[in-house]
Amino acid sequence: MLEVKGLSATYGKHRALDGASLHVAPGEIAVILGTNGAGKSTLLKSIAGICEGRVSGSVTMSGEALLGLPPHKVVERGVALVPEGRGIFGDLSVRDNLMLGANPERAREDQAQVYDRLISLFPKLEERANQIARTMSGGEQQMVAIGRAMMSNPVILMLDEPSLGLSPLLSKELFQNLKAVREAGLGILLVEQNARLSLGIADRGYLLENGEILREDRAEVLRNDPAVQAAYLGGGGSKSAPRPAELTGTATKPAAPKPASVTVRPKPAKSISAAAISGVDMNALLARASARPEPKTVPRAAPASVKRTTAMPAAQSDRLRAALTQIETAARQCRAPNRSALPPLRPSIRDRQRPATTPHTEGAPTPPATPSTKPADTGKVQVWRRRPGSTQFDKEI
Ligand SMILES: Nc1ncnc2c1ncn2[C@@H]1O[C@H](COP(=O)(O)OP(=O)(O)OP(=O)(O)O)[C@@H](O)[C@H]1O
């Protein structure tokens, strides 16, 4: 088991890591979540023996102290790091990259066995053994980087942002591969920005902010914690470091949100009815509109219920009455069984284009005959106008 206790790291006066403690056992995945600059890479580099800063505290692997050892000795103790940016040798073949990882003594003893385990997990590495590493896709290069670290036959594999630069699909594939690595019995300490995917495969998680481990919990618990969701799973929309109290759950409960204030507009002192504005009793008008029309021919006077506040000029009212009468008469004629009084219909455009036959409908009165000098098929439109106030029609010349 890898155990880290009170690990601190400073760069000059800057304390990047402040007494961090964690542990990872073989066959489990532990993820470290933290915002940018929280100290995640510093933590992994401190364990791996490659931190540029001053490191203090305790790191042990199966009880053996690691702190202060050179990086290759840390690898010999069974802890391998896949650094951010992969760090593969782009001009070398896939096979050469993998073999460079097999250099530690602990790997040489069981090299064939270690290689077989790797190939069973990532068969593509053997299929592409001769391909120059830099010509591979981002996801494949990440596989080479993981493969090279695994060739050192580690007990604990540390990965720094392995999904960086990978498409969502490749990231998903990568995380599935990491699950397979865990199933092969390795322990994984994972630093990831992709909290959703990493908490999806991890067993436990640590929240690291400002160099301090704020919380450790089961991945499932972290995944369902609203504060964690807001800080790391895109639920809060804020990229700034979350408040420690929120993540540790020690923050005082926020007061229940106030209901949005509702402005009640005072009623106007005096409401003005539509009837007052228009001078018409709207209810009476509506009642009239929905009632069956009376078969009257004479122009009707405005009903008593319709009050006008302003008198309509006499001429205007007469014209209106005349128009109403005409409409009513025409409507009555339309309903009447004998429509002989109706004028001939105007031919439709289609009819006008056809050679004319009888230019009106059946049963309609035959209009005065057109002069014989004019042929019937000239297509000329005959216009008939109704005499005002009568059912008689005159042909318009
Ligand atoms: N070599 C260095 N010299 C000086 N300061 C450093 C060095 N490396 C890291 N730091 C500082 O230490 C702090 C933690 O950096 P670190 O890279 O560990 O953060 P991180 O959590 O991995 O961030 P990110 O997610 O952005 O990679 C940062 O403020 C960073 O500027």
UniProtKB/TrEMBL annotation:
Q: What is this protein called?
A: ABC transporter ATP-binding protein
Family that this chain belongs to: Belongs to the ABC transporter superfamily.
GO BP annotation list: L-amino acid transport
Q: Where is this region: Disordered?
A: 233-267, 290-316, 332-397
Asked whether the UniProt record includes Nucleotide-binding among its keywords, one would answer yes
In this chain, composition skew of type Low complexity spans: 250-260, 355-364
Q: Does the keyword ATP-binding apply?
A: yes
Q: Which GO terms describe its molecular function?
A: ATP binding; ATP hydrolysis activity; branched-chain amino acid transmembrane transporter activity
All copies of the ABC transporter domain together span: 2-235
